[in-house]
Amino acid sequence: MAEIQFSRGIKEEVVPDVRITRSKTGQTGTATFYFQKPQAIDKDFKEDITGMYMVDEEGEISTSNVNGKFVNGEPMGIEATYVIKSPEQWDRFIRFMERYSEENDLGLTKSKQD
Question: Does 105 or 32 have the greater pLDDT score?
Fold first, then answer.
């Protein structure tokens, strides 16, 4: 089990586009998640967005860096950023993403280095 939640206990069904960067030293990194029209911004969704929670059998990883994206005043998406501050956090995040990717049929595309 690996899922993302915006309100604890409520699984977000929309699978995000995820972009991950890592510092040259491998010590830090950033993961940016973009959810297009997630259920968490649906007008019928009654819960407050309290953060983004990545939950799996190891526990929970969370970030409060969550922002709504709007077009002409209408909610269109959510962007969340998780800042990775140590090699241990990096390893834990990658384990979560491997589980989440497997459950949601996500693939990995590496960027080209110039």
Answer: 32
